[in-house]
Design goal:
Strand content: 15-25%
Order of helices and strands: EEEHHHEEHE
Largest sheet: 4 strands, antiparallel
Strand order of the largest sheet: 4-5-1-6
Structural class: alpha+beta
Number of strands: 6
Number of helices: 4
């Protein structure tokens, strides 16, 4: 993993490589988001993907959404059935219903996460799962500091692909901070 700290900008020059595998980029994009630790400012950046990485990411994300929806429907029906059963029992009290609801809400969240995982990885090949994990971990915003008083903002990206990180730095020469590339190692002066 390679880290690069840069001055904040709304847009950066992107290399013509896939940020996940290093192949020539296609039209696919990986969108990452971050929030400033100081001001709460929200940012989105789009990084290039090759066709294969974009297709795998899109396919598995679609399966994840389907898995979440199916698990939500199943849990909703189950919760509705239990709720109706409690309403028609003569000894049901408000406290029993509320305690059931408190128990059921975390179950819904866990069920949706399980449905998302099952939907993503059931029926996928090992190569697709590895490609999806590679795309998911290709770029992260590790840190975003936006200080309006000092009038400076810095973003630290973590790249899984060293070649992409080097080309990203070369394409944005005025914003890479000296000494802030590759986990604190000093930068060559040409950057």
């Amino acid at each position: 993993m390679e880290t690069v700290t840069i001055r904040f900008r709304d847009h950066f020059t992107m290399p013509s490589l896939c940020c996940a595998c290093g192949a020539p980029s296609g039209v696919g994009r990986l969108t990452i988001s971050g929030v400033s630790r100081i001001t709460g400012r929200f940012v989105n950046y789009s990084f290039p993907l090759c066709r294969r990485c974009a297709d795998v990411s899109q396919q598995i994300n679609r399966r994840r959404r389907i898995g979440r929806r199916v698990s939500l429907i199943i849990l909703g029906l189950l919760g509705g059935g239990v709720g109706i059963a409690y309403l028609f029992t003569p000894h049901a009290s408000v406290y029993v219903c509320l305690s059931g609801l408190v128990f059921f809400l975390p179950l819904v969240v866990l069920g949706m996460r399980a449905g998302q995982w099952i939907g993503a990885f059931v029926g996928s090949t090992d190569a697709d799962r590895q490609a999806f994990c590679r795309v998911s971990n290709a770029v992260r915003i590790q840190r975003f500091d936006d200080d309006p008083i000092a009038q400076r903002a810095y973003i630290t990206f973590r790249f899984a692909n060293r070649r992409f990180a080097e080309m990203f730095c070369q394409g944005n020469p005025g914003v890479v901070l000296p000494g802030k590339l590759w986990g604190g190692e000093s930068l060559p002066r040409r950057w």
